[in-house]
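Translate sequence into structure tokens.
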Amino acid sequence: MSPLTLYSFSDSDSLIKDLAAFIEKAQREAIADHGRFILALSGGSLPKMLGGLIGNENVQWEKWQVLRTNSVLTSCTELSLVYFADERVVRLDHPDSNYKLCQDELFSKTPRIPKENIRAINIPHIIKEALKEENTSDDGAPKKTIQTPQEIDDFLKDLPGFLLEELSNEYERDLLGQLGRSPWPVFDLILLGMGPDGHTASLFPGYPWQPEDEGYWVRPVENSPKPPPKRITLSLGAINHARKVAFVATGAGKQDMLQRVIDNKEEEELPSAKVDPETGTLYWFVDDAAAAKTQYARTQFTL
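Result follows.
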């Protein structure tokens, strides 16, 4: 079981400020140690808690240089990449998209981050795969097009399982291209939220995690109990091989679940309780309202 550090703050402003300092330090240490910073973000309420990075002079946005999928990692220095711990299978400009949420709350306000370094799911790829079998009619005209927002929404809503699997595999291939073909990816930092039911990323309580999922970095979720139902998510194994994992949870509505996940961590079968980095470190950034019932010892935040 990895060490767990619990930081509790009296208000959101203090949490946001110190979370930004924590992220900036993680970036600085990663670049100094191995020349790049690989970050994974979840969605939900988390992106709104990243406002402390905006205008932060200690975040070296100018070093977030372009690194494409076919780049040779050994020739790259001072690079940062942003992945998503999970994503809803919707258009990237759809209100349910984690990409859009992060774009609205953070990326659009830090324009020096190259768009190519924000690694979104590849919706055009999956549309192309779907149209392979019905490419053209006898007169050479396309039999079917998927171009308008409504057409894309309808297509993704009824996405067959094999194409959802391909979308998941495509995201894993992108990770493999950046991180190499090790048994597991090693993110420098993964930032997660926790749902009232104890879910994290798109790993839900009671979801049938199959033994054959072991070894996969990214997995499809076909029937999420929370809409939208089709998603992809980092596997628990991928999350647990990060150098640092930090949860962010706020509000009195998280009291009971936070107590279960932290105080009874070894007994609970909840996804958030199963996040336990094998060789990395685990942090919780919470406010006093969320931590009101938790008996676990608090740590004063310092750099």
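Note: The chain is about 30% helix and 15% strand.
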